[in-house]
Amino acid sequence: MNQVRKADPNNKTVAENRKARFSYEVLDTIEAGLVLTGTEVKSLRQGQANIQDSYASVEGGEIWLINSYLPEYLQANRFNHEPRRRRKLLLNKREMAKLSQSVDREGMTLVPLKIYFNDQGRAKLLLAVGRGKKLHDKRETEKQRDWSREKGRLLKERG
User: Fold this and answer.
1) What does the pLDDT read at residue 11?
2) Most exposed: 14, 31, 55, 110, by fewest CB within 10 Å?
């Protein structure tokens, strides 16, 4: 029996950095856990977050998410969180070593792509290892996107 599954409410994207794929050449992605307080999780469950200007940094053998914005939870009292605090990312030692090595030696950048809840209801961050694109690379990407869109229109018109 084929059953149509509804979208799992626990597996939802909270915030997405759509500009990252345009500004960076994504070479590798990795899933990382986030160390969050209770009010941060509640704020995320309401779908409020912004990771547009955020990045990850390797400091002291740990990886930190910097400049991400999780607004304060409105129903919280005086124990609310700071919206732009640094958040620690949870990774294995091998994964951390691999990421720190690529950032140090090859001049790559750690860019967050999206924050979401997995099947167990845990907040996860999709982290990309990327190299910044130059202006001509961005123009080339734009040309390819426009051409594929135009090609689709032409094929649709012909039937």
Assistant:
1) 55
2) 31
What's the CA dihedral at 90, 55, 70, 33 to 10 degrees? -20
Given a contact cutoff of 8 angstroms between Cβ atoms, the answer to whether 87 and 37 are in contact is: no
Q: Where are the domains of the chain?
A: 13-133
Which residues does 46 contact at the CB level (< 8 Å), separation at least 6? 73
Model-level pTM? Answer: 0.75
Residue-wise pLDDT tens digits, 103-150? 887 778 889 999 998 888 888 999 888 888 777 777 888 888 889 998
Kindly indicate the confidence band of residue 78, based on its pLDDT and cuts at 50, 70 and 90: confident
Q: Phi/psi zone of residue 62: left (φ > 0), alpha (ψ -120 to 50 degrees), beta?
A: beta
